Amino acid sequence: MSTDISALNNFPVIIGGGAAGLMTALQMAPEPVVLLSKAPLGAEASSLWAQGGLAAAMGEDDAPVLHLADTLAAGAGLCDEAVASRIVHAAPAAVEHLAKLGVAFDRRSDGGWRLGLEAAHSRNRIVHATGDGTGREIMRALIAAVRRCPSITLLDGVEARSLIVEDNAIKGVVAVNAQGPLTIVTGRIVIATGGVGGLFLESTNPAGCFGQGLALAARAGAKLSDLEFVQFHPTAFDGPSRPMPLVTEAVRGDGAILIDDTGQRFMADQPGAELAPRDIVARAVWRRRAEGHRVFLDARKHPGAEFAKRYPVISAFCKMAGIDPATDPIPVRPAVHYHMGGIAVDIEGRSTVNGLWACGEASRTGLHGANRLASNSLMEAIVCAQWVAESVRTASGDPLKARAADASPPASDPSAVRPILSQGLGVLRERHGIERAIRGLYPLANGRSAASDPALVGLMIAVAALQREESRGGHFRSDFPDTLPSAAPSIISLADAFDAARDLVETGSLSVGSAKP
């Protein structure tokens, strides 16, 4: 790397090269900012893989208040209504802004927006680009804009390993590149590292997204919220590839149905049928498979012969597996897709640590509640990036003094964590399985190995899941199947998780800490 790292001291640092990080960096202009990306820009970002689109009230029969109502209904009582309202009202302008940046959204022949329907939406409001390649097209445009922007210093191949914190305030970041460790002194850091799917064996997320941002924040002393709410997408492609290719919900919005290996349409009698909220569909598919059946998405009639034209990405990987969706049912199964929880932030993205913000899937804004409404996540990242950038710009303080490079922790490897979390924190959960996961994760999280950071994130998820003794949204407890009449977000720190796990391991019972909702 030819960049003089010392020359970057006191610039704001954004950690993460997905849509949230790129858009935050662009919104910071013309203030100089440093963007750290562990992989070549966009290569390991979940945003790149997004087949769905952005949810926004763009249609003549739609309005933000209708979008808000659908969001709150899907969130199962845990959305922050004020936050959700502000975000969905800003969504149409965010789509227009992306179009001005060069995103080639799909249009009708008259030039109007081509709007799709996805689960739990009451209107066609999903804006797509190149059919099922929305994420790839958005990332193409954002990467091009970042490379054109003179105020952004891009450091790709640089992995953040730890944050420097003194008196609950950010003082810098310790990172590693091919030449070794490096330290950037700064009082302003934005975490935009994506989700936790790489902590599970079966996920639609890139394997490199395994909660690194959550680990950075937790070790820095930040509070995390709603970690127990993990969304399983009901229609991941049931094949050998890992990560698992996704069969977007838009296919069901076009009329495809779920059948089992006997041809039975098992969702027909459910309210909303195949377009019920994702947690309901995922549990139905999971149970069908547990009964010994395979499950398929049948698109032979709808969209039928139009499938390859409308969904070229899905059509391509199906054909590689010897399947033509126009004539063959597509084998599917649930897989980890999105994390509703994350770093607890306010509407401007500020965490509980001074000088630390979060944006995108790594954050918990209150938009999603217990169950993300389809296509609200890309929209959240794009909308909130503007507010995060404004907050970071106005928070500049006195310059910090340069310091010697700190020792960096080892590179993380989640492979030891994946089977533990997959077995204990799946679509259906119960106390004994979660407790086994905690006992398995605690010694790993308490060590200093490559598994430590992934294990501590998994441990915090498991403790929060054990302490929420109800079923709500993406968190379903077979031993507590009912939803309590009132709900509150869970809040947990790293110290809370370690204390609770230590009690379980040493005494056989879990302490009631601040993670209790």
UniProtKB/TrEMBL annotation:
<feature type="domain" description="Fumarate reductase/succinate dehydrogenase flavoprotein-like C-terminal">
    <location>
        <begin position="457"/>
        <end position="482"/>
    </location>
</feature>
<keyword id="KW-0662">Pyridine nucleotide biosynthesis</keyword>
<dbReference type="GO" id="GO:0034628">
    <property type="term" value="P:'de novo' NAD+ biosynthetic process from L-aspartate"/>
</dbReference>
<dbReference type="InterPro" id="IPR015939">
    <property type="entry name" value="Fum_Rdtase/Succ_DH_flav-like_C"/>
</dbReference>
<dbReference type="Pfam" id="PF02910">
    <property type="entry name" value="Succ_DH_flav_C"/>
</dbReference>
<dbReference type="InterPro" id="IPR037099">
    <property type="entry name" value="Fum_R/Succ_DH_flav-like_C_sf"/>
</dbReference>
<dbReference type="InterPro" id="IPR027477">
    <property type="entry name" value="Succ_DH/fumarate_Rdtase_cat_sf"/>
</dbReference>
<dbReference type="Pfam" id="PF00890">
    <property type="entry name" value="FAD_binding_2"/>
</dbReference>
<comment type="pathway">
    <text>Cofactor biosynthesis; NAD(+) biosynthesis; iminoaspartate from L-aspartate (oxidase route): step 1/1.</text>
</comment>
<dbReference type="GO" id="GO:0008734">
    <property type="term" value="F:L-aspartate oxidase activity"/>
</dbReference>
<dbReference type="InterPro" id="IPR036188">
    <property type="entry name" value="FAD/NAD-bd_sf"/>
</dbReference>
<dbReference type="InterPro" id="IPR005288">
    <property type="entry name" value="NadB"/>
</dbReference>
<feature type="domain" description="FAD-dependent oxidoreductase 2 FAD-binding">
    <location>
        <begin position="13"/>
        <end position="378"/>
    </location>
</feature>
<keyword id="KW-0560">Oxidoreductase</keyword>
<dbReference type="InterPro" id="IPR003953">
    <property type="entry name" value="FAD-dep_OxRdtase_2_FAD-bd"/>
</dbReference>
<protein>
    <recommendedName>
        <fullName>L-aspartate oxidase</fullName>
        <ecNumber>1.4.3.16</ecNumber>
    </recommendedName>
</protein>
<comment type="function">
    <text>Catalyzes the oxidation of L-aspartate to iminoaspartate.</text>
</comment>
<dbReference type="GO" id="GO:0005737">
    <property type="term" value="C:cytoplasm"/>
</dbReference>
<keyword id="KW-0285">Flavoprotein</keyword>
<comment type="similarity">
    <text>Belongs to the FAD-dependent oxidoreductase 2 family. NadB subfamily.</text>
</comment>
<keyword id="KW-0274">FAD</keyword>
